[in-house]
Amino acid sequence: MGTGERFRGAHMGGGFLLAKRISVDQAVAGQVLAEQIARHDGVLLASQGSLVSEGLIRTLIRQNVDTIAIEEEEKRSDAEIMGVHDREIERVDAAFARIPEESVLIALRKTLVYLADKERDKALEYLAALEAKEAKEAEEALAAKEAEEAREAADAENGSEAEAAPPARASRRKKK
Amino acid sequence: MASPPDIQDRTRAKKEVRRIKNLPTVPGIVAKISRIVENPETSVADVGRLISQDQVLSAKVLRMANSAFFGMSRKISSIPQALIILGFEVVKGLVLTSSVFDMIQKSMAGLWEHSIGCAAASGVIATYLGRDDAEEVLVAGLLHDLGKVVLALNLPAEMSLVREKVAQDRLYFHEAETQVLDFDHAEIGQWLAEHWNLPESLSEPMRLHHRPEKAVVKPEWTAIVHLADIIVRAIGFGNGGDLLVPEISPAAWSLLGLKKTDFLPILENLEPKLASLRDLTALA
Ligand SMILES: [Fe+2]
Ligand SMILES: [Fe+2]
Hints:
heterodimer; A: mainly alpha; Molybdopterin biosynthesis moea protein, domain 2; 2 domains; two-stranded antiparallel ribbon; two-stranded antiparallel sheet; 4 helices; 4 strands; disordered N terminus; B: mainly alpha; 17 helices; 0% strand; binds fe (ii) ion
């Protein structure tokens, strides 16, 4: 479901991509559209994320479209990028100052830091490991609960046919 | 509808809020819409015509309808079309938001961005969960902090005290509000929503987005807005009065049935929307 490489970290430090509105006569082939372009009657001329071409520019002029939004990477030196990156990590740290270590939001925080570091792979790795660990813990908890229930049932029956009720399935609410 | 819980809280808040002299009246156009839809004879076209009479307002509504919020593949070029595509409640929410836009802008720097960021995040989460009411949840996100507007515009002295406390004691905005006023923007929001006759599906997230486990009317909407508020704060888009991320309500988290791994795709779906929503920061 993720949009993969489209994550652009506009607020995360690093390569800042901004949407910039320009007039059609400033458009150059190769620019990326930050917004779809529709004709005045609603007919779509180009979708968001597609490339500007000479042909598209001619169409836009013919259709009297005045301005378009393009993606523009802010020019920054390495030092500036590092500075922005450090500030972003500082900001995230400060923002999460009151979130306890055991909160699920720590995963959100780590995800943000990996993204600021442009380490999408590591984020995925971290999250996959986290998920596996949680699945295992849930399994163990379920097994422990079932064992407990079986023991209680056996106690209740008190020596007679100690037949435990079928273990309750873990009910995780499913996504709609 | 039965009275929601913690009625005592609300009575107290109402009493307090009477101190606020110039409560914003429901924007004239919204009042008119509410009035004409009470008439069973009213058609979508009538409502469309009424909104279209105010051209400035219509333009703002259409800009929001065509923004990255909704990600429509076709351009919505008229109010009647917006009513058909987005539905009446959503358009009414956009009209309301557009008509209080100046108020939001004037009240607190960064609050408008926080509001549209929360709206976009609400929409993204709802869509991610596969819900078919994402547009309506989005409107709930857009309006969630309206109580802050009333506070900023009507109780400026208290507001600066609140801000001082936030800065000094590293408090969440609503904690500082409670210390200073004994009620917070969520309660003001609820009161305002009643005053304006907003449906409970919208007033509940306004009242309970910091205590979503108490929601009974639309618990999922309130939980989504609660999480959306957390996510825009975590990303650092806009400013809701403090720059802290609030802890998530465990009940809301389990109600949504999300996993920790879902944060990544949600952030990735949200990011391009926030980038293009910069346009909406100058709606006027
Ligand atoms: Fe709030
Ligand atoms: Fe908020």
